[in-house]
Amino acid sequence: MKALIIDNEAPIRESLHQMLIAFCPEIKTIKEAGTIQMGLDAIHWYDPDIVFLDVELDEGTGFDLLTQLPAYNFQLIFITAHDKYAINAFKFSALDFLLKPIDPDELVKSVGRASKNVQHDPGKQLTLLLEQMQHRHEHPKKIVLRDLHKTYYVKIDEILYLEAEGIYTRFYLTGQQQILVSKNLKEYESMLESLGFVRTHHSFLVNPEKIKLFDKSEGGMLLLDEGNAIPVSQRKREVVLRMLEH
C-alpha cells in the first residue's frame, strides 16, 4: 500500500511517517504534503491507497481539500485534535480518525481497517460528518451503521434499543427492522449515552424516548412503544427509575 500524509505540522508528519515504518509493514511507500495544494498535487501524481488527512490546515480544512477532488478511490483516515463534539461527529458518521497525539495501537487498527477496504464509499458519510460538525453543539440526528453487505444511515429517533450478541450489537428499529453490526455494545453505549440512552441490563441499551411503561414486577421490565419487552437488571433498577423520574 502507498500512504500519503497531509498535515501542516512537520513534526506530526515525521512522527506518523516513522510510526508507519515501524508498525505497519503493509505500507510500502510514504509521501508527505503540508498544504491543501501540495496534497491535491500529491494525490494526482502519487495515487495513494490511503490518505492521512489533517482536519485543520493552515489555509483551510481537510474538507476543503476533499471538495476539490472530482472523485477519489483511496482509503481516508482523518487526523484531528478536535474537542469531544467533533470526535462524536466522527464516531456517528463512522469515518475513521486518529486523535493527536497519535497512538501507535490506534494507528495499526486504522491501517488494518483501511487495508480491508472497510469504507467502500465515504461520500455520504462525509456529508453527514459535515452536517454534524456545523451543528456540533447539538445532538447528532443520524448514525451510520454497517452490516456485512450494506451501509445504513439511521435516524436516532428510529432506534428502539440495542442488544449485545457477543462481540456484535443488534439494533432494533421502528418498523421491525434489525441491523447487526460488528462493534460491541460498550462502544455504542459510550456514543449514545449523551443522548440519554440507558443501559438497563448487561445486554440491553434503550432509547428513553421509546419507553412506554416500567413494570416493576418480576424484577422489572420496560415496555417500549412497539411492544418490545426489555429486562431491567437489579443492578440497573435504580438508574432506570431515576431516569424515568426526570
CATH-derived topology of the largest domain: Rossmann fold
Low-confidence stretches: none
* Number of DSSP-assigned strands: 17
> Over the alpha carbons, how many angstroms does the gyration radius reach?
21 Å
| DSSP helical segment count | 8
Strand order of the largest sheet: 2-1-3-6-7
Question: Strand count, sense and closure of the main sheet?
Answer: 5 strands, parallel
Strand content: 25-35%
Mean pLDDT score: 90
Query: Given this structure, which CATH class of the largest domain is correct?
Result: Alpha Beta
Tell me the count of domains. 2
CATH superfamily descriptor of the largest domain = Response regulator
Fraction of helical residues: 25-40%
**What sort of overall outline do the alpha carbons produce when their principal axes are compared?**
elongated
Could you tell me how far the N terminus lies from the C terminus, measured between alpha carbons in angstroms? 53 Å
Q: What is this structure's SSE topology?
A:
Elements: E1 2-6, H1 10-23, E2 29-33, H2 36-46, E3 50-54, E4 56-57, E5 60-61, H3 62-67, E6 75-80, H4 84-93, E7 97-99, H5 104-115, H6 123-134, E8 142-146, E9 151-155, E10 159-165, E11 168-173, E12 178-181, H7 185-192, E13 198-201, E14 204-206, E15 211-215, E16 221-224, E17 229-231, H8 237-245
Parallel strand pairs: 1-2, 1-3, 3-6, 6-7
Antiparallel strand pairs: 4-5, 8-9, 10-11, 10-14, 11-12, 13-14, 15-16, 16-17
Helix pairs in contact: 4-6
